[in-house]
Automatic annotation (TrEMBL):
The protein's enzyme class: transferase
Gene3D superfamilies per record: 3.40.50.450, Phosphofructokinase domain
Record entry for activity regulation: Non-allosteric.
Protein name: Pyrophosphate--fructose 6-phosphate 1-phosphotransferase
GO BP, one annotated term: fructose 6-phosphate metabolic process
Record function comment: Catalyzes the phosphorylation of D-fructose 6-phosphate, the first committing step of glycolysis. Uses inorganic phosphate (PPi) as phosphoryl donor instead of ATP like common ATP-dependent phosphofructokinases (ATP-PFKs), which renders the reaction reversible, and can thus function both in glycolysis and gluconeogenesis. Consistently, PPi-PFK can replace the enzymes of both the forward (ATP-PFK) and reverse (fructose-bisphosphatase (FBPase)) reactions.
Gene, per the UniProt record: pfp
Subcellular location: Cytoplasm
Organism of provenance: Streptomyces griseoluteus
GO molecular function: 6-phosphofructokinase activity; AMP binding; ATP binding; diphosphate-fructose-6-phosphate 1-phosphotransferase activity; fructose-6-phosphate binding; identical protein binding; metal ion binding; monosaccharide binding
Site (Important for catalytic activity and substrate specificity): 104
Family: Belongs to the phosphofructokinase type A (PFKA) family. Mixed-substrate PFK group III subfamily.
Length: 342
């Protein structure tokens, strides 16, 4: 039995921990052979492979990134993509394929399984924590820890200068990182994509914080937007790879706050720092368990499934169920945080 493994989409701390667990259990308990596919779906599409065995996964548990490389290549959008993937898998004698990724990578795996009968198993990853069917994705905890540490640091410099400090975190469609790090870091305003914000209200919170003689911290998710009609905030453009680039909400917000409150404001954009480096203990634990259960799916021939965390149990759900809709922040959960605003 030969199992292919790929990591697709934006990288995320914990990817190497999954790969290690898959290979360790696959080799030691089931006697499988492995082939690593390079750079996400580009690997099977173009027949790019790397050796994947016990020596290859030695020492990678605490390492960020992915030893397999990653890309956002979608074979369903490539000419003759499905045929090329099928031929390359057959050429490598692949009996099963484990795809580790977010919504896009897993969406491809779901289609290849459901419409083309390819034996795929999915493992969910994203720092954004916005995949349905799983309570958490690995990478999220690490990102929240990094953002929380940054917010702690911003508090002390904000207090020294009595300035507003805006911290922009990742989260294009879901505000999980903003909500969790904002609560953990004691932010005075948390803005998320799921809830359009009112600039007057935000400035009111900021002013009341100054009245209490404290400097406010605003945590804003990159996808947060003001109420309809307040201003055109986002300037969507595409980079040379065709990816959508949004102009920074954090910078825009700081300017608006200065204009409206007369207080000095600065912005810190955390960006890819949230995605790099070593995974937290929780993410290593979760990624390792996902890997162990994913290879069990292969062993039992249970294809078209994604492993997921529900409570403390690892369960299996159809991949298509996880990718059907994004898991966004519940309005009640967001409302809970409101007591700390201002
Ligand atoms: O999906 C994770 C994520 O980190 C988003 O929060 C962010 O918008 C995006 O990836 C940025 O990805 P990249 O810079 O790799 O295009």
């Amino acid at each position: 039995m030969r199992v292919g493994v790929l990591t697709g989409g934006g990288d995320c701390p914990g990817l190497n921990a999954v790969i290690r667990a898959i290979v360790r259990k696959g080799v030691q308990e089931y006697g499988y052979d492995f082939t690593g596919f390079r750079d996400g779906w580009r690997g099977p599409l173009e027949g790019r492979t790397v050796p994947l065995d016990i020596p290859a996964v030695r020492g990678i548990l605490p390492r960020g990134g992915t030893i397999l490389g990653s890309s956002r290549t979608n074979p369903l959008q490539a000419e003759d993509g499905v045929r090329r993937v099928r031929e390359n898998l057959a050429g490598q004698d692949i009996d099963a394929l484990i795809a580790i990724g977010g919504e896009d990578t897993l969406g491809v795996a779901a289609t290849l399984y459901e419409e083309h009968g390819l034996p795929c198993v999915g493992v969910p990853k994203t720092i954004d924590n916005d995949l349905s069917g799983t309570d958490f994705t690995f990478g999220f905890d690490t990102a929240v820890n990094i953002a929380t540490e940054a917010i702690d640091r911003l508090h002390t410099t904000a207090e020294s200068h009595m300035r507003v400090l805006v911290c922009e975190v990742m989260g294009r469609h879901a505000g999980w990182i903003a909500l969790h790090s904002g609560l953990a870091g004691g932010a005075n305003v948390i803005l998320i994509p799921e809830h359009r914000f009112d600039l007057d209200e935000v400035c009111g919170w900021i002013t009341s914080r100054f009245e209490a003689a404290y400097a406010p911290i605003v945590v804003v998710a990159e996808g947060a937007m003001p109420r309809e009609g307040e201003m055109v905030l986002k300037d969507e453009s595409h980079d040379s790879f065709g990816h959508v680039r949004l102009s920074g909400v954090g910078e825009w917000l700081a300017k608006q706050i200065e204009r409206r409150t007369g207080k000095e404001a600065r912005t810190t954009v955390l960006g890819h720092v949230q995605r790099g480096g070593t995974p937290s203990a929780f993410d290593r634990w979760l990624a390792t368990r996902f890997g162990l259960h994913a290879i069990d799916c292969v062993h039992e021939g249970d294809f078209g499934k994604m492993v997921a965390l529900q409570g403390t149990r690892i369960v299996r759900i159809p991949i298509s169920e996880a990718t059907a809709r994004l898991k966004t922040v519940d309005p009640e959960l967001y409302a809970e945080a409101g007591v700390f605003f201002g």
